[in-house]
Amino acid sequence: MSKKNLTIIIVVLALVGIVSVGVYVSRQHSTVTTSQTASSSSPQDVAPGLYPNEIKNNATAVGFIIKNIAVENNTDPVSGKVVSDHLELTLVNTTAKPLTGFEVYYTMTDAKTQQKEGYYKQLTGFTLAPNATSTIHFDNQTGDGHFTANKNSLYHKSSDAIDFAVQVSAPGYAVQTIQVTKAAGGAETKD
User: Fold this and answer.
1) How confident is the model at residue 111 (pLDDT cuts 50, 70, 90)?
2) In terms of DSSP H, where are the helices of the chain?
3) Residue 29 backbone zone (phi > 0: left; psi -120 to 50: alpha; other: beta)
4) Bridge pairing between strands 173-182 and 162-170
């Protein structure tokens, strides 16, 4: 083998080594960035997607019902004033004991494009008192009965009609479902 060929082989190996190290460092940096971003917020609150339904409830006894659903023309239940459109569910406890451990899974489908997204939420801290009615809001507000929602979802980005299908689960009781369609035109904001 000539010196020239040997030199070329050494240079190629050196370049391969540099590229490999560069890719390794890049992957290491990318991993750190991803984990920092993921820890700052739930991916379901930031990245639109069809997330899996994690409800694993096969109970058959009815312990609560979904009395109402709203996805547009929402009003504040106390003041009666118009508030920004959001998913709102009114639940009724039909038992004589408090219910906790609620989970919600909802899908939204763009009626025109058929694009579909799905979001799973644990309603941590929410208790439905015995024989009581309570409303939960997916509106990114704070306080009792308020939970996060993805502001980048179809609901907020599409001006087409959006079909919602919602499942609500509480341990020991049958999953309840409801559907509604938000009219075309985009999200309304409070006045």
Assistant:
1) very high
2) 3-40, 154-157
3) alpha
4) antiparallel
CA triple 69-117-93, angle to 5 deg: 30
* Residue 63 neighbours by CB under 8 Å, 6+ apart: 93, 94, 95, 99, 170, 172, 173, 174
Calculate the alpha carbon distances from 122 to 21, 92, 119, 138 in Å.
42, 18, 10, 12
Mean pLDDT for the chain? 82
Provide the β-strand partners of residue 167.
105, 177
Task: State both tokens at 152.
Answer: 């980048």
Assigned token pair, 72: 């547009």
Q: Are 175 and 168 in contact (CB under 8 A)?
A: yes
DSSP 95: S
CA separation for the pair 148, 140 (Å, rounded)? 4
Global pTM value:
0.76
Is the separation of the CB atoms in 170 and 63 below 8 Å? yes
